[in-house]
Amino acid sequence: MKYVIASMILAILATGCRNPDMPMDAPSHGSGGANDAKAMFADQTVDVQPAPVRLFFQAVTACGMREVLQSPGPLTIFAPTDSALASMPRGQLDSLMQPQNRDKLQEFVACHVFSGAYLSKDLLALKDIQTRDGRRLAISTDDRGLRIGNAHIIESDIICSNGIIHIVDSVLTP
After folding, report:
1. Cα 40 from Cα 131, distance rounded (Å)
2. Is 34:163 a contact under the CB 8 Å cutoff?
3. pLDDT at 92 over 60
4. Burial annotation 74-99 (CB, 10 A radius, 16+ → b, else e)
5. Domains by residue range for the chain, with CATH
6. H-type helices in 31-115, by residue range?
7. What global pTM score does this model have?
8. Could you point out which of 5, 64, 165, 166 has its C-alpha 20 to 30 Å from the C-alpha of 13?
9. Range with lowest mean pLDDT among 33-37, 146-150, 152-156
10. What is the mean pLDDT of residues 109-135?
């Protein structure tokens, strides 16, 4: 059975577990689809919303993009932490989460979703990356590590059956 990005990230974060010795057998960005990860979280569902990315996945659900994250992929998700979302200008996230702003919330979430499975080693070889909606974000490194746009990747290469998840410390803006 294939597990989807949304359920895998939530399961991984809920248990606090990640096997660093797990082979990186998900394909790179140029291949067709991600292989099944050997998951030990089969009892977890997408309804679990643990820290540190609870707010991002609430936004995914609120704007109706859960189905995108459950697609066969491959996808790469750069999920901002709750603290990154809390650092947005006062009231901005609350405003985006209002039903009348669903289109704006969907655009916001889409800035964090990329077609293709990009491991951190793949990202290092690129100068920029294109979101699913056509926006480009720069990729660089600094003394704190790998960056995408204005965000640092603080947890990388979380492999799921339909792609890769990286947790970032800032909201991505094109």
Report:
1. 30
2. yes
3. yes
4. bbbbbbbbeebbeebeeeebeebbee
5. 5-168 (2.30.180.10)
6. 54-62, 66-69, 82-86, 92-96, 102-110
7. 0.73
8. 64
9. 33-37
10. 90
